[in-house]
Amino acid sequence: MKAQDIRELTEKERREKMGDLGQEYFNLRFQLATGKIENPSRLRYIRRDIARLKTILSESVGAESKPAGPTKESADKA
User: Fold this and answer.
1) Which of 12, 13, 48, 49 has its CB surrounded by the most CB atoms within 10 Å?
2) pTM check: above 0.90
3) How far apart are CA 53 and CA 15, in angstroms?
4) Residue 9's closest CA among 60, 65, 64, 63?
5) In CATH, what number does 3-68 get?
C-alpha cells in the first residue's frame, strides 16, 4: 500500500486497516512458527505497511496539535 493511498483514507479507515494488518501479521508469524507459511516475504511487506500507517497516523495527530499561529521560538528569531 502506498503512502498516498493511506493519506486518502479517513482516520477510522486507517485505524481499521491497522487492525487488519496487525491481525494478518500475527497469523503469518504463527504460520512461520509452525512451518506452514506459503509466502514468507509477505511478512516484510506487512511490517512496512504497518510502519507507514503508524507514521501517517502520527503525522495527522501532530498536525492537529500544532498551534495555527507563530510559535514563541519563531517570534524570538525575528
Assistant:
1) 49
2) no
3) 8
4) 60
5) 1.10.287.310
Q: What is the identity of the amino acid at 22?
A: G
Domain spans in the chain, listed from the N-terminal domain onward? 3-68
**pLDDT, tens digit, for every residue of 43-67?**
999 999 999 999 998 887 777 766 6
* Closest alpha carbon to 27 in 49, 53, 46, 52: 46
How far apart are the C-alpha atoms of 61 and 21, rounded to whole Å? 20
- Return the closest-CA partner of residue 48 out of 30, 32, 25, 31: 25
Which set of grid coordinates corresponds to residue 21? Answer: 494488518
